Amino acid sequence: YRKKLYMIRDLFEKKRIYHNILDYGAGPGILRKELARHAVNVVPIKEGDKLDPRSRFECIVCASSLEFSDDIYGTLEMLYRASSPGGEIIVASPMKTNLSGFYFRLIGDTYERHSHGKIIAGARKYFKIVKIVELMGLYYAFKGIRK
Questions:
Q1: Which of 4, 11, 25, 61 has the most beta carbons within 10 angstroms of its beta carbon?
Q2: What percentage of the chain carries pLDDT values higher than 70?
Q3: Are 100 and 145 in contact (CB under 8 A)?
């Protein structure tokens, strides 16, 4: 988690404080403390929870959540609608590679995941991808700007 957190942190604009950040797929709130360093307001939401359709966020962070989405394209569209004009999205997740597959089998993790390629391709419909980073074929993160 620490490496993924660093990947996310490094994609934020230096010294920028966002008014609202959406932590999509927040789970137990592991990222909340770091996200609070970059925003006036952090709104955590678990996947499947309802998001007020009037809400707009300058930045949306999805850490290890999109790969588990039942409807990846519908979720990305919903996140697009929740982003403010020029808003950012930062996504970080495990990659779907032979190495990560071996790792997950080794630790007994049998969850089915969307591939990083599918997530990036879906995000490109709504966001201009400005940076993609990888960590040893295990994790990836990207930053996009709303089109």
A1: 61
A2: 99
A3: no
Structure tokens at 33: 């403390």
Full-model pTM = 0.91
C-alpha to C-alpha distances, 140 to 21, 29, 143, nearest whole angstrom: 20, 20, 11
Report the C-alpha gap between 120 and 142 in whole angstroms. Answer: 8
Buried b (16+ CB within 10 A) or exposed e, 80-108: bebbbeebbbbbbbbbbbeebeeebeeee
Place of tokens 């969307």: 114
CA distances from 115 to 13, 53, 54, 66, 71 (A): 27, 28, 30, 10, 13
Mean pLDDT score of the chain: 91
Question: What does the DSSP assignment read for 87-134?
Answer: EEEEEEEE--SHHHHHHHHHTT-------HHHHHHHHTTTEEEEEEEE
- C-alpha 44/C-alpha 131 separation (Å) is 24
Residue 4: both structure tokens together: 């993924």
Tell me how far apart the alpha carbons of residues 46 and 72 are, in angstroms, rounded to a whole number.
15
